[in-house]
Specification:
300 residues; alpha/beta; 45% helix; 13% strand; binds zinc ion
Length: 300
């Protein structure tokens, strides 16, 4: 078969364009802007009053080299948050601490906080005390392994307190518990700011997440450990990309340094975010990485 000159020319152009597209896909730069780590724990085993593996200088060095400019800090016990809030290294690294009251003094509190009056008292004491980086801005992270415990007496009281004091709530719960927690707020969920840790670590379907975002105007999704979020090569899966583009003001990223292994993997975790953030339009990537949380807590 003999091709006409015009046809051969257009095939060459097509081949050149395909090669160009492939090289662009390979070279797409990772997101390079600031990050707001909205799910950071500085638990006792990480630092242990400076004898642990990640004393403040180490923890702050990890944030600094990853372009993390602000953190939601919450720690078991709250001493870790106080330490970060007061540390000279925090200011030197240019990291803003947004403190949340952790509901746990120790591991026993994970399974009991929702009915333990002494937790409510501890929250009141912490709120009155504040931190060296200013007043607490939220409650949590807390866990509900059984969603029905959202109906516990202390859980109910804390949702009322959070809405009245305009405190955000960082909740590691399932989708059923989101409805229950919202129902306990005075506005029935219209005025309560819940940051949904992992946006559901059990991986409820995207359609269910979308329905909850529609129902509760202040609900935000934090994306660490989110099943189904990333696909081949660490890029965003198509249905998550569509959801984020539909709700660009409602998602945030976090490290969830719940065990020391997460501190040792901090570079990879943040690098993973930078990779898939590059799959979004630059303006949306900036909001997920930084802007949404910065707006929430009044940072510039
Ligand atoms: Zn966590």
């Amino acid at each position: 078969m003999v091709l006409g000159v015009g046809r051969r020319h257009s095939m060459r152009v097509t081949a050149a364009l395909l090669a160009l597209a492939a090289s662009v896909a390979v070279k797409a730069a990772d997101y390079g802007g600031p990050l707001f780590d909205t799910h950071l724990h500085y638990n006792v085993e990480a630092w242990d009053r400076d004898t642990g593996p990640y004393p403040p200088a180490e923890a702050l060095a990890r944030m600094q080299r990853n372009g993390v400019k602000a953190i939601i800090a919450n720690s078991r016990p709250n001493a870790g948050t106080h330490a970060l809030a007061a540390a000279r290294e925090t200011r030197a690294a240019g990291v803003t601490v947004v403190p949340f009251v952790r509901l746990y003094r120790n591991r026993d509190d994970y399974g009991n906080w929702f009915r333990d009056e002494s937790i409510y008292e501890m929250v009141q004491t912490e709120l009155a005390r504040g931190t060296a980086s200013g007043p607490y801005r939220g409650l949590g992270e807390f866990h509900l392994y059984d969603s029905a415990n959202a109906n516990g007496p202390v859980s109910r009281k804390l949702m009322v307190l959070a809405e009245e004091k305009k405190l955000a709530v960082l909740a590691h719960v399932d989708d059923v518990a989101i409805d229950l927690l919202m129902a306990h707020s005075p506005s029935k969920g219209q005025g309560l700011r819940i940051i949904w840790a992992h946006t559901g670590i059990g991986g409820p379907p995207v359609a269910r997440v979308r329905a909850l975002l529609e129902r509760y105007p202040l609900l935000m999704g934090e994306l660490s450990y989110r099943p189904g979020l990333t696909c081949e090569g660490g890029g965003l899966c198509p249905e998550w990309r569509a959801l984020i583009l539909q709700y660009p003001g409602r998602f945030m990223v976090g490290s969830d340094t719940w065990v020391n292994q997460r501190w040792s993997a901090y570079d990879e975790i943040m690098g993973g975010y930078r990779r898939w953030l590059a799959d979004l339009p630059a303006e949306v990537a900036q909001r997920i990485a930084w802007g949404n949380a910065a707006a929430l807590f009044g940072l510039r």
